[in-house]
Amino acid sequence: MAQARPIPELSPDMRFADAAAAAVEVRAAEVFEHSAGVLDSDDIERVHDMRVSTRRLRAALEVFAVCFPRKEHRRVLREVKALADALGERRDPDVALEVLSGVAAELTRSDRPGIESLAAELHEEQKQGNARLEQALSRARESQLEGRLAALAEAARSPRAQAGASP
Amino acid sequence: MKARKVKKLAPEGALADNAQRIVAVRLEELRSFAGAAHDPAEVEALHDMRIAAKRLRYVLEITEPALGPSARQGAKTAKRLQDLLGEIHDCDVMLPRVRAHTERLRAEDVEWARHAAGGRAQDLTPSVASGAPNRARYRGLEALGVYLSARRSVLFDRFLREWEALESGGFAARLTDGLNPVRPEPAAPAGGEGP
């Protein structure tokens, strides 16, 4: 799993809203860096890394919610959540298949046909998950999510832009 | 599970003050599920407790540079708890799925056997079942179901032990008392050392 990148220059006495801007910038960059090759189902770690970084971005948006303009924060958070859900739909069968593979290796040969029949069902879900993830990534590109996250961070830096929801 | 509202957050206020308020609420939220989560059948409470552990972990991870080593330690504890509850949750998700898959195979076999008997059959001989197409699959799925149920029980007992150890060790008080804003050392006055 990818380690979270440290957020530079966080200090106890800095403005909460400045910390919000720094956190969202760093976490958003991580999400989009991990998006490369995420649809390659032969390398399941890519989906995992992007999912974890999306969760961290979502956490930053929630923790610092009060620092962002309310309406745009809500829209962006909804889109990040949709992306996280699509990554989750793709990741869940990956995890289940890993469990099945471990179990199958330790059971007897005559136990395997049952495990393999469930694995076939999960492989099908993995394909469907990939198609949904592709759509979610397209939507994120079309809505310019990356740029809007940057704008949201910038807005937090300007005093009085706030009034988001509770974290 | 909707997160509890944190009151009196101030965007113009200091990061450390706001972070401490959020941590206090997230910590109480986590502990509020512990009572119900002592019942192994309370799948929802265990799931909610996992989400609460995740929220606590993330706020501590983000603000750790400002809140110091206690926040780092608290984030590690929350992650350990989140991971363990996550393993239990995976069993809770996988078990019904195995059962549903087995049911689907069984329904296919019943349909196959019914069809094999013919439309005007008076009765059905048991030997028909031995040719059912999914017959070889049940054994592995039953073994998988047994494994998942037993693993879930082992993990749940481990969760209870670990949670009780955390509570009896006063982890909540240690976390909140230990959150000390990390402030840079004041610079030494120039020429401070006398002749």
Number of strands of chain B: 0
Count of domain modules of chain A: 1
Q: Major sheet of chain A: size, sense and barrel closure?
A: none
Given as residue ranges, the uncertain stretches of chain A (5+ residues, pLDDT < 50) are: none
Q: Count every helix of chain B, treating DSSP H or I runs of 4 or more residues as helices.
A: 6
Please summarize the sheet with the most strands of chain B.
none
Overall pLDDT metric of chain B: 91
CATH topology of chain A: CHAD domain
Quickly count the helices of chain A. Answer: 5
Question: What average pLDDT do the residues of chain A reach?
Answer: 91
Q: Please, what is the CATH homologous superfamily of chain A?
A: CHAD domain
Q: From the 3D coordinates, which CATH architecture of chain A would you assign? A: Alpha solenoid
What is the CATH class name of chain A?
Answer: Mainly Alpha
> What's the name of the CATH homologous superfamily of chain B?
CHAD domain
Identify the CATH class of chain B: Mainly Alpha
Largest interface, C-beta closer than 8 angstroms, per-chain residues: A-B, 46 and 49 residues
